[in-house]
Amino acid sequence: MTVLPIRDMAPFLAGRPAVLARGPLAVILVEDDTAVAATLRHHLDRGFRHILLMSDQPQDLPDAMAAQVTQLRYDPRRPAAHVQAVNAVIRAVPTGTWLYYGFNAEFLFYPFCETRSVGEMLAFHTEERRAAMLSYVIDLYAGDLRACPDAVDLDGALFDRTGYYALGRRGTDGQIRERQLDFHGGLRWRYEEFLPADRRRIDRIALFRAAPGLTVTADHRFSIEEYNTYSCPWHHNLTAAVASFRVAKALVRNPGSREQVRDMTWRNSHRFDWTSQQLMDLGLMEPGQWF
């Protein structure tokens, strides 16, 4: 095991180190100590060239993994913590670099990810003249909160197989935005009374290309409107999914909900089998023109 040295984020990124020269790169914000190594292993297995780990606590990782991970000192528990971290990375990497961002205990899936690398998938997406990819955050949760009081069960994870829907997204002028939708479902829908209105959506542009002036917002959208679209005007494009224990963890920890949420299962709970095919079969991921 290796204890990663913590580097200060600003000088590291300002130095434009070699690990930032080529993507795809992943940015993982570590909010607690849950499934950190599993999260990193999952994304390295998908083919990310390097991971920037944002945390204020030293991380102890397997030796084989440590060379592909750089830990940067950062407080990921501040409100909208992803904004400063992701925007700093956007400014530091070469224009056009593909980036992913997520949190610990979140796991990226895309069509056929078991046999094709994230680099291969993004090369195809780039050829379709797309600079971002819509992802649905699929809430995972434990079936037995007495056995798993943090609501995390990697071996027996459940998710909602139904209950997802989309609404037209309105701009500041009140008009529906072209090729943009607000997606809802999962724990955020079933326990919406415990979540602020601006945190109930499950759509996130988790994969995107760095561009001059590009910034991410607190609600996981981008300053370039085309990045927020689900597809090009001509046909369906690839979409991805982020399988996430993040909301489940929050529901059992936050004072406003922990006494109310005793069992997250319902009639539409289903065993998560950790495959892209399951997500595609349920319409939670779109292969587009990629086969």
Query: Which structural class do you get from the secondary structure elements?
Result: alpha/beta
* Beta-strand percent range: 25-35%
**Major sheet description:** 9 strands, mixed
Oligomer: single chain
* Cα-to-Cα separation, first versus last residue: 39 Å
Tally of strands: 15
Largest sheet strand order: 2-6-4-3-7-13-9-14-8
Contiguous runs where pLDDT drops below 50 for at least 5 residues: none
Approximate helicity band: 10-25%
State mean pLDDT (0 to 100 scale): 94
The ordered string of helix (H) and strand (E) elements is EEHEHEEHEHEEHEEEEHEEHEH
Query: How many alpha or pi helices?
Result: 8
Anisotropy-based shape? globular
* Radius of gyration over all CA atoms, rounded: 18 Å
Question: What is the gist of this entry?
Answer:
This protein has helices at 9-14, 36-46, 63-66, 81-92, 118-127, 186-190, 246-253, 276-281, and strands at 2-3, 6-8, 25-29, 50-55, 60-61, 69-73, 98-103, 106-109, 132-139, 158-160, 165-170, 176-184, 203-209, 240-244, 269-271. With 291 residues, it is of the alpha/beta class.
Short key terms for the protein model shown above:
globular; nine-stranded mixed β-sheet; single chain; 291 residues; alpha/beta
What does this structure look like?
There is one protein chain. The chain has 291 residues and is α/β, with parallel strands linked by helices. The protein has helices at residues 9-14, 36-46, 63-66, 81-92, 118-127, 186-190, 246-253, 276-281, and strands at residues 2-3, 6-8, 25-29, 50-55, 60-61, 69-73, 98-103, 106-109, 132-139, 158-160, 165-170, 176-184, 203-209, 240-244, 269-271. The mean pLDDT is 94.
